[in-house]
Design a protein that fits this description.
The structure is a homodimer of 245-residue chains. Chain A is built from 7 helices and 9 strands. Chain A is of the alpha+beta class and 245 residues long. Chain A binds a DNA duplex (30 and 30 nucleotides) through helix 3. Chains A, B: This is GntR family transcriptional regulator, histidine utilization repressor.
Chain lengths: 245, 245
DNA sequence: GCGGCCGATTTGTCTATTCATATTCCTGCG
DNA sequence: CGCAGGAATATGAATAGACAAATCGGCCGC
């Protein structure tokens, strides 16, 4: 099976093995693992070695461990990590405001040149079907963020059956699909055309643009373009290295 | 000595002890530590326990370890970590452009209400002397970023003697003072007044505003306001959880 | 004097075992 | 029936010992 790794220590091999099982969904969030001793025996190592692996995965946020309780797969990282504005509903709620989501557009298609340009995607991976979405987040009735998103249906087939007319896709995705890497691009723009109209802003008003591309191992999961009315919104990223939990 | 920590495991105490020595400069970058065995004995623990501590610190980027070579304090984290645009000179160089720094203002003072508002500092820590700086970064001759910065002289006394007329303060600081926590705030603004003039932009042009506050354990180190001409610049933050080195 | 090899040293990894601690579960008493 | 308390159990922490891997240095032969 997972041969093809000639030079690797026991705990490195087991670490990758377990991480993969979590990421590809074989072990769903909430799944309870066997106890240290049994896992150790199953992998042919001592409990100390297995403990090192499990401790590491817990530190990375993949597992939650409780004494006597056992070891569980953690819920997908919501905003545990570092730089996350995945769930705009939660973001608005944290400010103590009411949140609304209005779906403006939904279609299943292949990406054309215009959409690729808008989402800053190169000719890169993926010519298959995508779910293309656009919608408006409102806070306390006022436009808060315009979201334009492509979801790779090859990576997240379940998205095909979601309407996203009541739940924003970001909320659903963070609860559904774990990711392994993300790339955020930030820029200031003067809004134009339809985007200005949706946000109720004059053309040329300063807006914060976030382009995010999320990956899960082999393919990309989703690309999203978020436009925030400039002065009204700010984005805070707190960062403390090496202090995972 | 370091009592005052009633409930703590051995490796947690030692971990904090060593981290402190690195952060407050008692162990300078490049300093060679004693070998595991000796450190273990000095702290009254076994080698396995000390190994756990040193391995952890190496993973956090504080130490560099080489077999047979020994264990060394790492050079201060430049942009090893996650979300770093500390050194604008390096940023510009990475784009293959020439970089220039023009100092516009330099004074040692106490922060007034206007400066606090500009840098988004609350009545928060620090009524002592600060070094207040303003300057312009240029790339290939064109304005690239307007920097306004306060440096806490209580935390970085050496900054008092630096002119910063040739080297930007960000470059110097990242090579001098390690930090433990940072907070970035991002916003889009329409530039006004003097800032527009310095950047050579019309009033109201969209710009990316970054406010960063850096801490090192007890006090704040520096607060900086960076204004980037909007369309011309974008900020990319790549993020991969749990993959430290 | 120079280059290659070999041994000593230091970290890396793993094991077997012991004790500690936090929960859960179950039993028994009111 | 419900709650208190104790036993069982899974993880957490630490130890001593052993071997592997990397590499620094010095020794030896040429």
């Amino acid at each position: 099976m997972t041969s093809a790794r000639p030079q690797a220590t026991h705990h490195a091999r087991i670490l990758e093995d377990l991480r993969r099982r979590i990421l590809d969904g074989r072990w769903a969030p909430g799944h309870q693992l066997d106890k240290e001793i049994d896992l150790a025996e199953a992998h042919g190592v001592s409990r100390m070695t297995m403990n090192k692996v499990l401790t590491q995965l817990a530190q990375e946020g993949y597992l939650v461990r409780r004494r006597r309780g056992g070891t569980f797969v953690a819920q997908p990282r919501a905003q545990s990590a570092v730089m996350e504005i995945n769930d705009i509903g939660a973001e608005v709620a944290a400010l103590g405001l009411t949140h609304d989501w209005t779906l403006l557009r939904r279609e299943i298609t292949r990406l054309g040149a215009a959409e690729r340009a808008l989402l800053d995607m190169p000719a890169d991976a993926g010519t298959g079907d995508v779910l293309f979405l656009q919608g408006l987040h409102s806070a306390q009735g006022a436009p808060f963020c315009l979201e334009t998103r492509a979801i790779n249906l090859a990576a997240v087939p379940a998205a095909r059956d979601m309407a996203f007319d009541a739940t924003p896709p970001g909320t659903w995705l963070t609860q559904t699909k774990p990711w392994t890497a993300a790339r955020n691009t930030l820029r200031a723009i003067g809004v134009e055309g339809a985007e200005a109209r949706h946000l109720g802003l004059p053309v040329g008003a300063a807006c914060l643009l976030i382009l995010r591309k999320t990956r899960s191992e082999p393919d990309w999961v989703t690309c999203v373009r978020l436009v925030y009315p400039g002065e009204a919104h700010q984005l805070v990223a707190e960062f403390e290295p090496g202090r995972a939990s």
